[in-house]
Target: Branched-chain amino acid ABC transporter permease
Amino acid sequence: MHKSVYHGLYLLGVILLVLPFVVPNSFYLDIAVRMAINAIIVIGLNLLVGFAGQISLGHAGFLGMGAYASAALPTHFGWHPLLAMGAGAVAAGLLAAIVARPIFRLKGNYLAMATLGLGIIISIALRNETQWTGGPDGMPVPAMELLGLEIANDRQWYWVIAVLLLVSVWASLNLIDSPFGRALRALHGSEVASQVVGVNIARYKGAIFIISAMFASIMGSITAHYVGFVSPNFADFFHSIELITMVVIGGMASIWGSVIGAVLLTALPQALATFEGWETVIFGAILMVCMIFLPKGLVPTLAARWSRKG
Model:
């Protein structure tokens, strides 16, 4: 990786190290944890949408699969939380593998509708299987254990998720810089040209869809354990749109854009809470302004302007 990339990782590490000591109370620490969780999910989604150019409007369905695996398997069958998390990730990966080939034969609006339908099917299944999932009311999630120790408070969760964020950013930057990542970017540029130079389009599309789905499932499990409760809202359509919006605002095909987009859109509703009754209108207006003046996303646009000045 380029030296500047390592500089970015070092800076992120310093910020994560200092942050819990400067936030004024547990409320802000909770927001920081949620920012980091969303950042990891959005990184996985951006690998699929931004780098490979494959839209997904049902990604929260995989998030819900992981969350409910971590709730239902320990509750009903006594599974260890880590084993349940792994089972959820495997299930999400298998589902992605099964549907990838037929779905990714589609393009544009048809692909968007197919992924939307997949997410809706998962959401309905989780909502209707009342005996296993608690139905619309949701269900509690047992505490997470690591090495025999229970992760019980916000500060402990912060350190776990901060490490996961650093590892996710590092792994994703390496992935994009690898031959696999270059093949993904070639797919985004032109599928026909990619095929001419020997890229197996179906295999690469399927592989990145599986990776992205497993990313989401694992973080769904982490979120469920952190919150201590899971409901069908984890997997609903609006959550998928929220995640896509984070990708677009931060910057398509930008790992750092994923982090910035997740941070901004997690914090923004809290910042607008004082505008009682108008927060949704203001939120929408801010998104419109960003899309008009920053069409490529915040990080790529600012980086391009900075390079021109340099």
Notes: The mean pLDDT is 90. Residues 201-227 form the longest helix (27 residues). The first strand starts at residue 139 and ends at 140. The CA atoms of residues 97 and 143 lie 30 Å apart.
